[in-house]
Each structure stands twice: as structure tokens, then as C-alpha cells.
Amino acid sequence: SPVSPTTDIAPGMSTPVQAADDLIHHLLWLGFAEIGPSVWGRPDAKPDLVHEVAGRLGLTSLPVLALARFEDVGRLVNSASFRETSGLAEVELQYRAFVDRFAELDQRVASGDVSALLADPETAFVLRTLLIHDFRRVRLTDPELPTALLGDDWIGAQARDVAARLYRAVEAASWEWLFEVTGLRPQSSHPAVTSRFPDLLPVRR
Fold it and tell me: Is the pTM of this model over 0.85?
């Protein structure tokens, strides 16, 4: 669905330091991103959420809320100040490092050369563990802006594709090694098996 350019804005939080820190922490969980000094916004208009959180925190001085419509949201997202304050610039660097780190393996998988990866199930398990660890480390810092704002060439989407391809390439062998070592074999429908990259075809066992 199209992204609404209407945005909640909560500028100038004149509250005690700890209360302000707590409010900012909750704003991040609610999907807000810092779009300027002491200005926080999110892509859809839900000011009641901010009021509810402020009330739960016992704030006596509520943040000022405003609704804004950006005529050119893409220009805002691509501005240097937004990319810095939202952390998007750093996230891009981390995604690029992830893609570069696994580029050689990804090329081998793309060409069908996976025999070496699957010859040793323990190696497959180690690779899968490192892959997910590295990918999740970046994802946890990703502000996860709507795809429509990031464009088709968003490096985060490329990193996700790399992670998905490599994960699927080693998934079966790594599970077999784990089952052999632990003696445990969860059902193929177990969330631990199906929750990652669900849009891809399930691995066959």
C-alpha cells in the first residue's frame, strides 16, 4: 500500500533528562526516527500513541505534537541531515560490509557451486550461525523505513537476499549436523525451522 506522507512530529521535549530519555526510548520502539535536532517523526499519524506513552511515564510536560505533510518525502529521506540523524547512513555502511563479506560465497551459491559448503555439515552449521549473527546485528540497528521511501536499489534489500540465499544453501546440512550432535529433531513446521526468510521455498528433508 502507498506510504502516507503525513507524519507525527514531537519536537522540543522540555522534560527532565531521565524522563526525556525514557520517552525517546519508547518513541524508537513505536517506530519514530530522529529527523532533526529534538524532532522525531514516523510515517503515519498516530499522536495518541505519544500521549499514551507520556502518560504512562508520568510526564507532567507533554511533548509538542504536530502533523506535517511533506510534498517530497523522498527528498527528505535522501537528505544528508536525515540520513545522519536517523542512523540510515551508518546502517547502509554496515549492510554494504555484510554484502562484501559474503560476496564470494554468494557467487558460488548463485553459480550452483555448493558442494564444498555441504561436504562438511559442521562447517555448514558454523556458516549459518555466523551468517544470521552478522545479519541480525545490522537489522537491529535498521530504522526499517517503508520500502517505498528507500528505493529499489536499497542495499538492505540486497543484503537480505544474500543472507536468504546462503541460509537456504546450508540450512539442511547444518540442521542434520545439529540433529546428529544433540539427538533432537524438531518437526519441520517448528518456528525455529520456518520463521527465517518465510517467502522462500521450504527446505526439503
Answer: no
